[in-house]
Amino acid sequence: MTQYNYPAPKAPTYKEPKSVKDCLPQAREIVMKQHGRTAMGPIAKGESILIITLPDQNKFVQEAVTQACIEAGAGKVTFMMPSELTGQKERFFSVEDGWDEAAMLKEGIASGSPETADLASGMNVAKPLIAFLKKHPEYTKVFWDLGARTQKVQVLGDQGHKFKANWLFNNWEEYLSDAWSFPDELSVEIERSIVNVIGQASEVRITDPEGTFLEFPLTAEDARKWQYGAWLKGHLFMDPLQASVVEAEVVPHSPAAPPVFRDMNGVLAGTSNHRGFFPRMELHIEHGRLVDVKGGGKYGDIIKEMNEKFKNVQWPGYPDKGYFWFCDCALCTIVKAFRRTSDMFKSCWGFPNIAERNRGGVFHLGIGSRRHHEAEHLKVAKKHGAALGHIHVHNYFVTYEIKLRGTDTWYKIVDKGWLTAMSDPAIRALATKYGDPDKLLSYDWVPPLPGINCEGDYLRDYAPNPLAYLKKRMKEGKSV
What we know:
The chain is an alpha+beta fold and about 475 residues long. About 30% of the residues lie in helices and about 20% in strands. Strand 1, helix 2 (about 60-70) and strand 2 form a beta-alpha-beta unit.
C-alpha cells in the first residue's frame, strides 16, 4: 500500500436539523462565545441585535439563535436580507465558477471595491445599512457577511462600532460545525503562540506540494511591525505588508509609518480560491509584485489581462508600478472548520468556497493591493478605472517556517498543514480542561489531493480539472 507524507482525506458528517430543539445547544454555545469570526457574546441586557442573513436561512437555526439571545438578555433579534436594504435580488453561486473571483474584481463589484460590498451577496450593503442603523439607533450590535471584519468596521463609518462579527449561519451545515463550540481559551493560546514567535523572524519560507515556494528576508524592525498587527481573532496576518497597513489594522498603526514591503520572491500555485475551483495556476512573484501567470484557465487569463492593463498604476506608498502585489497571506486557526458539501453547487454565498479556508493550517494567499493612504489610493483607482481589493489562491498543506533571528534555526509554525502549536505540551495540557486533547486538537476535515495524500496522480487526475475529480469522489461516496 502506498504511504503518503500528508494526512489522509477525511470529512465530518452532520445531519440537517428537523427542529429548534436540534439547534438550541449550539445556539447557546455561540451566544456565550467572545472569540472568533462568529462570536455573539457577551449579550448586553435589553440590547437589540441585527443579523444580515440570506434567503436560505435555516428557520430552525434562526429560531434557536433568537431564543438563545433572548435567554442571554437581549431585548430583540432581527434577521434581515441584503435585498431589504438594497432593493436588489439575491442570487445563487457555485464552486464551479472559481474564475469569477477575478471577474468580480475586474467589474469592481458594483461600488468599485470588494471590501465595501457584502462578500456574501455580492451587493454593496454598506451604505443602505448605515442609513438603516441611523434610522433605527436601537440596534447596538450587527452581525454581517462572511469575512473582511476590519473593513466592515471601516466602511460603516460612524456606525462601525456596532459591527460585532460575521454571520455564517444561514447554512445549517456550517452552523452545526464543531468549529463554533471550540473553547475560546484554547483558540487564544494557539494564536498567541504563533504571534509571539513571528517577531523573531529574520527570514520566512512558504512551501506547499501544489507548487508554492515563496521566501523573503525581514529586518528586526519590520518583524516587530508585522507582529504588532498580525492578530485578528481566528485569522492571523502572516504577511508583513498585510499586517502593517491602515486598511487591515488590528492594533492601530500611525498613518505616517510606511508599510512593510518585504522582498518576496517565488511562485504561488494552487487550484482553488474563495469562489471555487480552477485548473492549476502559477503566479510568479518578483520583489513582491506579480510578473507572470501560467495556467489557471479563465481565472489565469483574467489575471493576466488585468496585470497588463494596469501595469502602469503606481499605488500610493508602493515601491514601484504594478497592479497586482502579493498582499495577503492569512492563516485561519479554526481547528474544526471544513469544506461544506450541502451547498457547493447552489449557494447564497457569493464566495461559496470561503468556508474551507477557515480551517486551521489552511492558507489563503492573495494578490492585489492594500490601502495605506486611503484617500490617495481611492484617487489613483478612480484615475485608472481600477477596482480595489485582492484575489486568492488556497493552499492546504503549507509548511510555513521562519528563521529565528541570530540563529540557524528554522521554526515551523505550520508543518504540512498542521498547526504545530497543537503539539505543544502546554497547549495540550490546557486542552484537558475541556476534554480529550487528542480529539480537540485534531482536524475533522482534510481535503483529497491525489498523489499527495491519496491514490492517483496530481498532475494527471487533479490539476487540469479539480472539480471533476471532487465530483467523482462525491459520486463514489468518498469525502471531499
